[in-house]
Amino acid sequence: MNSQVDWKLRWENELDLADHLELADFFRQTYGPTGTFNAKPFIDARSWAGARPELRAIGYDANGVAAHMGLLRRFIRVGSTDVLVAELGLYGVRRDLEGLGISHSIHAVLPVLQQLAVPFAFGTVRPQLHKHIERFGRYSPLTIIKDIRVRSTLREARVDKAPVRLEDALVIVLPVGKSMSDWPAGSTIDRNGPEL
């Protein structure tokens, strides 16, 4: 990696229009190569896809936005137990910096997670990213949970589509204020809202 990345933690209400325009462009360029549908939410100055984050870890280098991770505190239901989490999502890294890795953004937000006193950070990734996440898990207390169904609401109601999405995803959990032994058992997770 040839680029020096400077991480900035920004609360959502600190971002101005220029920030949202820059981030929307970053996401269109980052997610677009994985399919036009993935870049579609980031029209104009929209810099979020589903739920809007409350805090962002944004990595900048000489070329602008290099990487991004969003954070949103919410209650999810694991099995029949409500759990306060900081959902991590809206992750992206510029193509020329793909070696930057998710670990850099997690390390950028870890002090904030501890300051927010959430028991767990939580996120989901596509099963195709299993090997990538597994490598990262060797160097952190991150736990990967398989065989979980995750239910989320769609970000927009449509008459031609069910209002919820049920998917098989890899669930990642990072203990922050509690230990992993405190994570409840369950084969389903309800976000009770859209994915971050």
TrEMBL record:
Its main location: cytoplasm. It is found in: Cytoplasm. The keyword 4Fe-4S does not apply. The gene is nodA. The keyword Acyltransferase applies. Pfam families: NodA. It comes from the Bacteria. The lineage of its organism: Bacteria, Pseudomonadati, Pseudomonadota, Alphaproteobacteria, Hyphomicrobiales. It comes from Rhizobium grahamii CCGE 502. This is Nodulation protein A. GO terms for molecular function: acyltransferase activity. Keywords: Acyltransferase, Cytoplasm, Nodulation, Plasmid, Transferase. InterPro entries: NodA, Nodulation_prot_NodA_CS. Belongs to the NodA family. N-acyltransferase required for nodulation. Acts in the production of a small, heat-stable compound (Nod) that stimulates mitosis in various plant protoplasts. GO terms for cellular component: cytosol.
